[in-house]
Amino acid sequence: LSQLFRPLDMLGWVYRTIRQGVIDMGAMFDLIDTDAEIVDVPGAPPLAVTQGSVRFENVRFGYEDDRKILKGIDIEVPAGATVAVVGPSGAGKSTLARLLFRFYDLKSGRITIDGQDISQVTQDSLRAAIGIVPQDTVLFNDTVGYNIAYGREGSTHDDIRAAAQGAAIGDFIESLPDGYETRVGERGLKLSGGEKQRVAIARTLLKNPPILILDEATSALDSRTESEIQATLEQIERGRTTIVIAHRLSTVVNADQIIVLEAGEVAERGTHAELLRKNGLYAEMWTRQANEAEEALAAE
Ligand code: ATP
């Protein structure tokens, strides 16, 4: 009978290996949709990150030729700064992140990191420089230690523990009977949304990238978990260039700059205070979310 199951095991192994090859790109991306034609230019050098500044220069892009999604976007993220991208659903926020990771090439314009056009450097070096904390973290049916270590090859147990502590999930893991050997995923311990996000944060801490993309979860975490995760994220943003794709405005108040994207164009940009004074789209979104939050509180 065991002979009979072997091919199935094998299939699982192949599947897992493939998944391991792609997981790093983040669960936020639908990989099947990505353009297979992204190739390194012959003799492409690796990206050399000196400061970690990111620039989108007149970026135009559409998934299909006849539908423009981004219509000439200019964004500058100085090294170490945090820029939040907000805007209505479908405005193109996640598309910006996909383009920075070079899942697609631009129709025109360019994206640079420390002055180097990302389409002219190796994809491996580009992706090694960028960490993503996705909306939904995919966990392997393996130990929690393995799931964290996935952030970097050859990490030691001490590295993994330090990353887990940095993501504020270390004490929780150590309280489990099997500690870091606890199996998680579909066939193991089910982690909550917040715990999964912390595993993703720990992975990113192990990877230690100079550039971060945070894709805020749309799924509701309870407000206490949310503010705790927010505090952890603010710590890992320190010293890194960060792009936050935000769905809740409460989390962008402290960003160095907020970009309001609407139908593929930058409608407004500025700090939270500047945008409120402007009394435009951002101010309108802010008032609406504040009212919704009040109503939700009243209903509790
Ligand atoms: P949300 O806040 O809902 O996540 P968003 O601002 O992040 O939205 P994007 O995911 O960037 O929006 O999508 C922008 C537009 O591009 C949408 O109209 C979407 O339908 C379209 N789009 C996204 N991915 C693809 C794809 N792989 N192929 C074709 N169109 C796509």
UniProtKB/TrEMBL annotation:
Annotated ABC transporter domain residues: 54-288
Full-protein residues shown: 306 to 605 of 605
Top-rank lineage group of the source organism: Bacteria
Lineage: Bacteria, Pseudomonadati, Pseudomonadota, Alphaproteobacteria, Sphingomonadales
Record protein name field: ABC transporter ATP-binding protein/permease
Originating species: Sphingomonas qomolangmaensis
Subcellular localization, as worded in the UniProt entry: Cell membrane
